[in-house]
TrEMBL record:
Residues 126-212 form the Rhodanese domain. Transmembrane segments: none annotated. CDD domains: HTH_ARSR, RHOD. This is ArsR family transcriptional regulator. Signal peptide: none annotated. It comes from Enterococcus mundtii. PROSITE patterns: HTH_ARSR_2, RHODANESE_1, RHODANESE_3. It comes from the Bacteria.
Amino acid sequence: MYSTNKKIFEQYSLFGKALANSNRLEIMSLLMQSPKTVKRIAKDTNLSVANVSKHLQMLLKVHLVKNRKYKNYIYYEVINKDIENMLTIFFETAQNQLENLSEIETVFSNSNEYVLTIEDLEKRLSAKDIVLIDVRPSEEYLTAHIPGAISIPLQDLESMIEKLPKDKEIVAYCRGPRCLMSKEAITILKEHGRQAVQFNQSVNDWNLHSMLQ
């Protein structure tokens, strides 16, 4: 006699299988930033439109994402905040537990560079002694951003850099520790004589931290 209902765990396994793919995890990470079309996801992930569509169908099947039509386009998004929070915790836990992940991230980051923590950023924003910039695409900023941040997409940074003060530290953030846009922004800012530091957590990390306070 079984002590559990195996059919329930079979259904749980379908949920797990949907996430047990690096491309689908990357797609979910992108959709946590803002709703996106298939073409935009394909561009951001360097996957074919057909491949992205196949992955999205799998994610739709287990109710991790939903879609909606706006004008002539179909947008995909994370189905609810519970899934966003679950994935935020999942990525953070994986980052803490997997030694290989830490080694890979070290390759993409300069360990000598100081990176603000969430607690640091809270204090600096309260003190009003920094300028916080969001270097993600503007549609992601419009979907959600850290309070007090201004939107300067990475591709526009050099053309807008003269609007940023030289007497205040500039803090740049993007999609979190798996995103390199804020690191590139720091390099550009320093090349133009600005004091700059990276905040390598995401808006979802910030919101989850605020919710748990």
